[in-house]
Design goal:
Layout (H helix, E strand, L loop, with lengths): L25 H12 L3 H14 L4 H13 L3 H14 L4 H13 L3 H14 L6 H13 L3 H14 L4 H13 L3 H14 L4 H13 L3 H14 L4 H14 L2 H14 L4 H13 L3 H14 L4 H13 L3 H14 L4 H13 L3 H14 L4 H13 L3 H14 L4 H13 L3 H13 L13 E3 L7 H7 L5 E11 L2 E4 L4 E6 L2 H13 L4 E3 L3 H5 L2 E4 L5 E7 L2 E28 L2 E27 L5 E7 L9
Amino acid sequence: MKPMVNRFVMALALSSAMSAVFGQSKDVADNALTQLTEGNFKQAKTLATAAMNANPYSSLAYAIHGRALAAENDLAGAQTDLEKAIKMSPNNGVFYAFEGANLKNQHQDAAAGKAYDKALKLLTAPASALEYYARGCIYEAQKKEEAALADYTKALELNSRFALCYTKRGRIYENRKQADAALTEYGKAIGINPAYASPYFLRGNIYYGQQQYDAAIADFSKAVELDPKDVDALFNRGVMYKKKGNYDQALADYAKVLTLTPNDASVYGNRGNVYLMQDKASLAFSDYTQAIKLDPNKAPYRVSRGNIYQRWEQVDSAFNEYNRAIALDPQYADAYLERGNIYLNKQQYDPALADFNKVIAIDPHSSNGYLNRGVVHHDRQQYAEAIDDYTKAIEADPKNMLAYLNRADAYEATGNNKLANADRKKYADLGGKLSATAANTRKEIYPPGTFDPKLAEAALGRGLSKIVGRACTKKDGLIFSAAGVKVVLLPVTPYLEEWYELREKKEGKNTSVFMSKEANQYAITAISGSDGRFAFEGLKPGKYFIQLVHSFNQRKTARIYTGSDSWQNGPVREITNYYYDQDYLVARSQRLEKFVEIKEDGETKKITLANGLIKTCDF
């Protein structure tokens, strides 16, 4: 949407020393010059009109009157007056500088450049505050800030009440991010003329940048008080009210702007944002649509309307809006961010990742760009990369609550509960809501590293070797063949080795260690025969990991006591106990696995998977 307006209207004043050539209008023209120099444009215009009436041939009066019209945004009227002034005084460098500024405001850059060149030739040796000021304005327009600042400073040495000079110098400091110096300059201009609106406006913009919203509102309000038709000040004040959550006041200011400039698309766009914050989606949609109608080539309006479609669950319409926004502005990061979210919600991870990468390429400090890219890695169980992106999101915006919450989940998934708890506390400290939950007594953790599918795919390439084997489990002295069991072969990659090492360290009664879903997809499976035999063919030389889980029922027999008889045999009492044998099944499960290396293509590797040495289980 439309950013804060950072307006500056170039003002040129004319030296009172020149007014001596204008006969009987001298006193009035002198007064007009003083008013113009101190930023009183309306008074300057009135006095210039009087001077023009007194002397229709006063080039100075026409120049002042033209400048006052330019301040009122009547650039065509200003141009007419300036051309008359130059025709009367064709060797006045200040008049040409004045005309150049007006032409530049009309976006006639080539004509403005010619006027500036003429002015510079006539102002090679400035002799007054005005001439230094005029030349400084040209240097500033040409982005020669050092030269412009030197001329403004010289002008102020010659005329300490040159309020326009303070304002111009303040703008240069502001461009250089020297906010305190700029505030000082604007304060001096206001001290000379409290009715000079421009420094209030400019100072308000600095306060906005410093998040001093109340101070900014006070300055914009003063600018509006001095000029009720100042649409820029009204607009910026509306932005401040929006920042403070004073939505009704923001809407009132936007409504005033629209009465003055009813075809300003940016106002509709910003008002739409306020309506959206008030959960008035239909009104927001109408304003975004009007903004698009007035300015169909503005990408942000498309994205905003797309967000409304998203809210209404019209995903296809939202997707189309984001595509249009990207076509209009391929460097508009928000469009990629929102389109990436649609891909993410559909679990289309590759295009989502591409869009989030584009966001970060456009804006390397995009907290949400890193956050969303982290979610892609998180969903893919690439926890190290997810944690890295969440950390970058936090570095870009330390108040990004979701980045802390998501990083906590990623830490927990890799078994780092201490860091996970610290992040959840930070999330709560920032205002996030955490509810009490039931404890999960068994943890599932994953290796933090990133699985490389290309490496795994290459390792499973076709070769001439094979692995044949047999799987058995020994229990209570009995041998059980792993019949009809799924046997899995995985290529040994750095990720698998990391998983195996983590499993050896962390797996226990309450902890299971898993590989990512993607890593498990790069596997070859076989089903063992009735005697536990299996085979993998077409393998290439390399290292493999073979695993199966042998689950079976072991039949056992228990003697069940049913009672007894007793009798007296002389002095001896005898007892007979009665039993019967009962069969029952015991569920068994045994994980069998082995690393196997094939060194030469065409080799056949014979292996046994067993829970110990079982000679009868050899292949």
